Amino acid sequence: MRQIWKTFLLTRAKRRRMTFVITEPCIKCKYMDCVSVCPVNCFYEGENMLVISPDGCIDCGLCEPECPVEAIKSDTETGLEKWRELNAACAAIWPNICVKGEPPADADQFKDEEGKFDKYFSKAPGGA
Ligand code: SF4
Ligand code: F3S
Description:
Layout: H1 2-16, E1 20-22, E2 43-45, E3 50-52, E4 72-74, H2 81-91, E5 96-97, H3 116-120
Antiparallel strand pairs: 1-4, 2-3, 2-5
The structure holds iron/sulfur cluster and FE3-S4 cluster.
FE3-S4 cluster is lined by residues 22, 26, 29-34, 50, 66-67, 69, 71-72.
């Protein structure tokens, strides 16, 4: 059954060639509920956020509803060019993450904050 599901997802991905991206609300929150549902392990970890590899994502959409701060968006939405580029660039240099880790102890303090990219974005890899 699992194999059938995987084959279905891969076939659909080949047809559509779209992806999901992680955006600003993830910064300093990094809850990581998204990690455990991904069938192809295409999350990559930075110091204070995750990104999705556009080469690995099969557009299944399973991760999108898992994020408590709605940071995961389909790249078909408008205005996401900056985040598409950032996800691709950081996925190439950050380590892969397949298992949910411990979110930052102060994650909830940053849930509703705006302008997090300018204030806190870090290019440093996570998983240290
Ligand atoms: Fe993984 Fe989300 Fe892409 Fe599905 S949509 S393959 S869960 S990153
Ligand atoms: Fe970030 Fe949301 Fe995943 S905060 S780590 S995209 S669950």
